[in-house]
Every structure is written in C-alpha cells, then in structure tokens.
C-alpha cells in the first residue's frame, strides 16, 4: 500500500485492515509528487529526508510503532522538480541503509523512466531492488522497455483494468488493454526478463471498486490470469510473476 507522505498515509488504518482481513499489508515511505510536498520541503536536506525514511522503516511512522516495509511510491513529475530529484537521491541512500525495496512513479514522458534510473544509479541505489511503475503508460516504445529492463530494475504493469486513454495536462496518453499488456509482458519474458515482471491494478479511486462500477481488487486473480493462460503463459511463469518476484522484492537484504 504505497500511500506515503503527502498521500494521506494512515499506519493505524492499515494495521486495522491487516488484522481484520488476515492480509499482509506493506506500507510505503518517502515522498510523492512535488505538488503534494509541504512548504517545508524546500529547506529539507537529502540527509534529513533519508533519516525520515530510515526511521519509518526501522522504528515506525511517528509514534505509531508501525513500520514501513518499502520505500515509495516516490513521485516524479515531468520535467522533474528539484525537490523530486532530492527525494530520489534520499530514497536511494535510505535503500542502502535499510535493505528495503524502492518503488518509483515516473512522470508523463517516454524519457522519464531512464532519467530516474540514472539519478538513482548515480546515488548508489540497487537497481535490482528498484521498481519502475506504470510501464503501461510511461514506456510505450518497445525498444525503451528493453533498455530499461537491461538496467536490472523491475518493470511493473500496474494499470490492469484500465484502457483507452489517460488525459493529463492537456494531453492524451493512449493506454493498452489487458490483452495488449499481456502480449508486452510475454515479449519481455521471451527476451529473458521474467524475473523482473510485476503486475498490479493501481487502485486509487472509488470508481475502480466494484460498488462503483469498477473491476475491483480481484480483477487480476479473477479475470487476468485466465487470459494469461489462454495466451500461452505457463503456470510456472504466472507463479513467478504473482509470487516469486514480489516475495524476492519485498524481502529485506
């Protein structure tokens, strides 16, 4: 659950949901997009932001005693704001200090993902424990997907259930449908990147829930996996994407 600082993160609510459902809920840390930063961000140093993230993971958020289990979703606009660059570098340092995985939201440009990866790499991040989100809207060029995969990071297709187009800042971004997403994932698997594939639904508003006409939280399990099988994905490949890759990523090292 990657709601972090600036997105209304609620550790007590997540713990309550976890206890009530029996689900393991992994809480995020760090900062989202610059537009969600508080006025104090300009004066914060990278070291201060790093310390905040490390404390969230090692001690707990505030006085809750509830600890984060992943760094992210670190928000990046396009072009990147200076404070977002600062937060990326701080997140990379916190990853080194904690062994936690790092998750990043790229901006609305085909160039965004590789710029983020370069900043993180220069700051000492472990790219093999770094996730670039929203591949299905951020990296539409097949050659760029291969270039990104070669860095060793995880590629997350996390807009399952959404298709058509995505209006943003007076632009229209085309979105693939779920069948096209599966085709792209299969192409990446065939090129040797199975162990870097992740999938999700990026549920963030009421309209995506069943009660409001959306696919709901079960869409991947209920609807997507059968299509993967029909399209020729093996049970071993599905298990790797659904179980092995997330487990490896979320295990502290």
TrEMBL record:
This is Phosphotriesterase-related protein. The keyword Metal-binding applies. The keyword Transport does not apply. Keywords: Hydrolase, Metal-binding. It comes from marine sediment metagenome. One of its GO terms (molecular function) is hydrolase activity.
């Amino acid at each position: 659950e990657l709601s972090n600082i600036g997105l209304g993160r609620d550790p007590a609510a997540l713990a309550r949901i976890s206890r009530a459902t029996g689900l393991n809920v992994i809480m995020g840390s760090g900062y989202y997009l610059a537009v969600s930063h508080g006025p104090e961000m300009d004066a914060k140093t990278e070291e201060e932001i790093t310390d905040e993230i490390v404390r969230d993971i090692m001690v707990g958020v505030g006085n809750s005693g509830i600890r984060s289990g992943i760094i992210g979703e670190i928000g990046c606009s396009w072009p990147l704001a200076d404070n977002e660059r600062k937060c990326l570098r701080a997140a990379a340092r916190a990853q080194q200090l904690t062994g936690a995985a790092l998750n990043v939201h790229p901006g609305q440009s085909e160039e965004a993902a590789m710029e983020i990866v370069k900043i993180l790499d220069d700051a000492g991040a472990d790219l093999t424990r770094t996730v670039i989100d929203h591949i299905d809207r951020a990296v539409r060029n097949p050659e760029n997907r291969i270039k990104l995969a070669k860095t060793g990071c995880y590629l997350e297709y996390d807009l399952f259930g959404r298709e058509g187009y995505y209006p943003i800042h007076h632009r229209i971004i085309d979105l693939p449908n779920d069948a096209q997403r599966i085709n792209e994932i299969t192409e990446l698997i065939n090129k040797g990147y199975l162990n870097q594939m992740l999938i999700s639904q990026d549920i963030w508003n009421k309209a995506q829930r069943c009660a409001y006409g959306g696919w709901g939280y079960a869409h991947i399990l209920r609807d997507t996996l059968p299509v993967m099988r029909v399209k020729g994905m093996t049970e071993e490949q599905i298990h790797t994407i659904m179980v092995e890759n997330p487990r490896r990523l979320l295990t502290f090292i």
